[in-house]
TrEMBL record:
GO terms for cellular component: cytoplasm. GO terms for biological process: cysteine biosynthetic process via cystathionine; transsulfuration. PROSITE patterns: CYS_MET_METAB_PP (PS00868). This is Cys/Met metabolism pyridoxal-phosphate-dependent protein.
Length: 396
C-alpha cells in the first residue's frame, strides 16, 4: 500500500476488510475496554510485552486505522491521534520538554498554540521565544533549544517558512523540528520529506473536512510516537474517540479532491481581489508578489484554501465586510467544504494581546477566509457584495 500513489493511499491506507465480518467501512469500535481473557495476558498487555487493545484511552482499532492512514499520507513511520489539535500540542510539549529547555517558534502561530507556549510552558520552567524569521532563528539558537516549532502557511497571515532550512537549523543544535501542517495538509506539503521530525495537525480542519469532528494528530518516527503514546495518552489522556476517528477516516478519502477545489477557489479569489481599492493587502502564497511565493512553490503542490484580506479602515472595515458576507459563514475553524470567515484579532488570536498581534501583522483590519468547495464564482460575487459595505477613505 505504501508504494501506491497519494490518492490511492488516501482511499485505502490504514484499513482493509474487517476480518470477522468482511465489513467494508471501518467499524466504529464504540467500546471503552476490551476483555483480555486471563490475568497473565492482562499483565503482558499493561507492561507492553504484548501488543493489543485493552483500554480505548491507550488504543482503539478505529482510531488506529486513522493513525495508520495519516502516517501513510505524511510518509512517516507512525502517528498518534489526540482529542484535538491542542491536545496534540500539549501532549508533545509534555513529552519532549523539561525545565531549562527552550522552545523557539516563528510567529504568528494559531492563537491557541502560541497562547499555550507563551502562557503555560513558563510555569514548567521552559523558556519560549519567537524568532522573526529563519535568519533571526539561526542567529539566536542555543544548545538549550529543544524544539523549533513552525506553522506553514501560518494562521492567519499565510506566512511561509522554508521547512528544510528550519529542520537543518533545529538539527544543528540537536533540537526537534516540528511543523504544524494543518493549513497545507499532506495533500499539498509533506514536512517529513523536508527533514521535519514531527508533523502536527488539527484534524478538525482539512483532514476531516466537513466541520463535524474535533481531533488532532502527530506523525513522526516510531520511537517518538511510542513515547507520545505513553505520555500523551496514558498520562495526559487527551485521547480521540472512535466516532471522530471514523469521521476523519471518511473525510481523508476525499482529501486530495477537496484540496484541489479549495486551492483552485482560493487562487481565483486572491487574484480577483488583489487590486481591490478597499483592500490594503491580500495574503495568499499563490500570488507571485507574496514574500513566500518561491519557497511555497518549492514545498507545496498548490497554495492552499486560506486567504486573508487586510482591509483599509481597520476593525470597522473588517466588521462591515464580514457582516456583509452571505456564503462565508462567520465562524472560527477552517478547512470545511463550506466557506467560513473570521476576524482573528478579536477571536482566535485575541489572547495574544494587541502588541504581539500588531508586530505579527494580525491587524484589526485583517479578515480570514477559509475558501470552501462551492463554485468560486458564487464566492467571488459574495465577497464583491460584502466589500460594497466597506467605506474606503479617500487617499490624500
Ligand atoms: C493551525 C492550527 N493548529 C492547531 C489548531 C488547534 O486545533 P484544535 O482546534 O483541533 O484543538 C488550530 C485550530 O484552529 C489551527 O488552526
Amino acid at each position: 500500500m505504501n508504494n501506491s500513489r497519494f490518492r490511492t493511499r488516501a482511499v485505502h491506507a490504514g484499513h482493509g476488510l474487517e476480518p470477522s465480518t468482511g465489513a467494508h467501512a471501518v467499524p466504529i469500535f464504540q467500546t471503552s475496554t476490551f476483555g483480555y481473557g486471563d490475568a497473565d495476558r492482562g499483565e503482558r498487555l499493561f507492561s507492553g510485552q504484548e501488543r493489543g487493545y485493552f483500554y480505548s484511552r491507550l488504543g482503539n482499532p478505529t482510531v488506529r486505522a486513522f493513525e495508520e492512514k495519516l502516517a501513510s499520507l505524511e510518509g512517516t513511520q507512525d502517528a498518534v491521534a489526540f482529542a484535538s489539535g491542542m491536545g496534540a500540542v500539549s501532549a508533545l510539549a509534555l513529552t519532549v520538554l523539561k525545565p531549562g529547555d527552550e522552545v523557539a517558534f516563528i510567529g504568528p502561530l494559531y492563537g491557541g498554540t502560541e497562547g499555550f507556549f507563551r502562557h503555560i510552558l513558563d510555569k514548567f520552567g521552559v523558556t519560549v521565544w519567537e524568532a522573526d524569521d529563519l535568519d533571526d532563528l539561526a542567529a539566536r539558537l542555543t544548545p538549550n533549544v529543544r524544539m523549533v516549532y513552525v506553522e506553514t502557511p501560518t494562521n492567519p497571515t499565510l506566512r511561509i517558512t522554508d521547512l528544510k532550512r528550519a529542520a537543518d537549523l533545529a538539527h544543528s543544535v540537536g533540537a526537534l523540528a516540528v511543523a504544524d501542517n494543518t493549513f497545507a495538509s499532506p495533500a499539498l506539503t509533506r514536512p517529513a520529506e523536508h527533514g521535519i521530525d514531527v508533523v502536527l495537525h488539527s484534524a478538525t480542519k482539512y483532514l476531516g473536512g466537513h466541520g463535524d469532528a474535533i481531533g488532532g494528530i502527530l506523525a513522526g518516527n516510531a520511537d517518538l510516537m511510542g513515547e507520545l503514546r505513553v505520555t500523551g495518552l496514558r498520562h495526559v489522556g487527551a485521547s480521540l474517540g472512535p466516532q471522530e476517528a471514523y469521521l476523519f477516516l471518511r473525510g481523508m478519502k476525499t482529501l486530495p479532491l477537496r484540496m484541489d477545489a479549495h486551492c483552485a477557489g482560493a487562487q481565483m479569489i486572491a487574484e480577483h481581489f488583489r487590486a481591490h481599492p478597499a483592500i490594503r493587502a491580500v495574503y495568499y502564497p499563490g500570488l507571485p508578489e507574496h514574500a513566500g511565493h518561491n519557497v511555497a512553490a518549492r514545498q507545496m503542490r498548490a497554495f492552499g484554501g486560506m486567504v486573508s484580506f487586510d482591509l483599509h479602515g481597520g476593525y470597522d472595515a473588517a466588521k462591515a465586510f464580514l457582516n456583509g458576507l452571505g456564503l462565508f459563514v462567520q465562524a472560527v475553524s477552517l478547512g470545511d467544504v463550506e466557506s467560513l470567515s473570521c476576524h482573528p484579532a478579536s477571536t482566535t488570536h485575541q489572547l495574544l494581546g494587541a502588541d504581539t498581534l500588531a508586530r505579527q501583522g494580525v491587524t484589526p483590519g485583517l479578515a480570514r477566509l477559509s475558501v470552501g468547495i462551492e463554485d468560486p464564482l458564487d464566492l467571488i460575487e459574495d465577497i464583491e457584495r460584502a466589500l460594497e459595505h466597506v467605506t474606503v477613505a479617500p487617499t490624500l
